[in-house]
Design goal:
This protein has helices spanning 25-29, 83-96, 125-136, 169-173, 186-198, 209-216, 255-266, 270-280, 289-317, 336-343, 364-370, 375-386; strands spanning 34-40, 44-53, 56-66, 103-108, 114-121, 147-153, 176-185, 202-208, 224-230, 235-241, 244-251, 321-327, 347-350. It is an alpha/beta fold.
Length: 389
């Protein structure tokens, strides 16, 4: 069954049991204390395998595999591979990373899903369940019968009710409830489910990556946090209120844009430009001034757009964002966090998703640096691990 929210929430997906996955009996009967989380991005696939020991998550293995070569492209380039090629790459990665768990979950990209907050009158839970599909039609651009829909009531950050700017006294006097809806086209669910099954995985849930990010970054307090997840082809901006992504946006720029800009402006190959990006980043020095300026221009554009989203949220809902968390492979460029601090007036920190996971001592340094790349995959694995008693 595919569930977009954690188990235990009200969900219209209960009617879809058995629809998504149809695995052979021997896979379903295999039991293991180990679980795996899978994040299929535009330029790479990432996996994280965990197990539970003494009530705590323990890292068993993890790995990343670039998808560029599977499309006859360079490492780091975004791709649009057919389902069979993605399955091939996932199997290769699991073999190379020694993944032996078959139970777990798979992340659905934010770009292939819909997350929205709707506001409806405060009525009984049963009536909310009847109203949500009707209201959701206004936000979903395809027939409601073509998507799988889930929803959850959004708790307030504090005991006082908030209202959007410009609401009249009559509007604010009427009690409202905010409901988050999550929708994924059934074709997308089928595609990702097939990738999992043909790769030998008994995936029993799909989750929109925004939820995985929040879980991995341990955002539990009743506060507003802005997450900037910089990928290869795009950047995801998620404003989390407690455990829920209250707002989500996609900025159509990512680390691949830096590679392409370096290649074009300096007249070097994509492979050389990728190497420059990873080596130089925003490093100071006359000898790298041209490279740094190209990188800075693109990163500045990403942060400026994210700041616009932040300010609009704060102005609309009268809630201050308490901190900003940088995540994703693009955040690992040298000097990124310093540039981010120049662009925002609140605290900026780098994601450290493995902070609450037991890992070998000799890997602590490596995972502290590479950790932001694995936030989504880790968040998926953690959800499955939480289901194990």
């Amino acid at each position: 069954m595919a569930e977009f929210f954690s188990s235990g929430t009200q969900s219209t997906l209960e009617r879809a049991k058995g629809f998504v996955l149809d695995f052979v009996d021997d896979l379903l009967k295999r039991k293991s204390s180990s679980v795996v989380g899978v994040d299929i991005g535009s330029s790479s696939i990432k996996v994280v395998q965990l197990k539970k020991r003494n009530g705590k998550a323990v890292l068993e293995t993890y790995g990343e595999l670039s998808l560029g070569p599977y499309a006859a492209l360079e490492v780091g380039q975004a791709t649009k591979l057919p389902q069979e090629k993605v399955s091939e790459a996932l199997k290769d990665l699991m073999r190379e990373a020694n993944v032996n768990a078959v139970a777990g979950g798979l992340a659905i990209p934010l770009s292939q899903s819909l997350l929205s907050i709707i506001e409806i009158p405060m009525v009984s839970e049963r009536k909310i369940a009847d109203m949500v599909p009707l209201e959701a039609r206004r936000y979903i651009p395809v027939p409601i019968s073509e998507v799988t829909l889930d929803w959850r009531v959004v708790p307030e950050l504090d005991s006082s009710s908030r209202s959007a700017e410009g609401e009249s006294e009559k509007d604010t006097a009427a009690k409202k409830v905010r409901v988050q809806i999550a929708a994924i086209h059934n074709e997308v669910i089928g595609r990702y489910s097939n990738i999992a099954s043909t790769s030998g995985l008994a995936i029993d849930f799909l989750e929109i990556e925004a939820f995985s990010l929040i879980r991995a970054l341990d955002i539990r307090a009743r506060e507003a946090v802005l997450i900037i997840d910089i990928g290869a082809g795009s950047t995801k901006v998620v404003i989390a209120e407690g455990e829920l992504p209250f707002r989500s946006h996609i900025i159509n720029r990512g680390s691949q844009d830096i590679t392409q800009a370096l290649s074009k402006s300096l007249g070097v190959s994509i492979l050389k430009a990728e190497e420059m990006k990873r080596t130089v980043g925003l490093k100071d020095g006359v000898e790298v001034e041209n490279q740094r300026d190209v990188i800075r221009l693109i990163m500045q554009g990403i942060f400026s757009e994210a700041n616009r989203i932040l300010l609009d949220y704060e102005r609309t809902y009268s809630v201050a964002v308490s901190r900003i968390v940088l995540s994703g492979g693009g955040s690992l460029l040298r000097g990124t966090i310093d540039l981010a601090k120049e662009n925002f007036e609140v605290e900026v920190v780098m994601a450290h998703p493995f902070a609450n996971v037991d890992i070998p001592a000799f890997m602590e340094g490596t995972l502290k640096e590479a950790g932001p790349s694995f936030s989504v995959a880790l968040g998926i694995a953690m959800r499955k691990l939480q289901e194990i008693e």
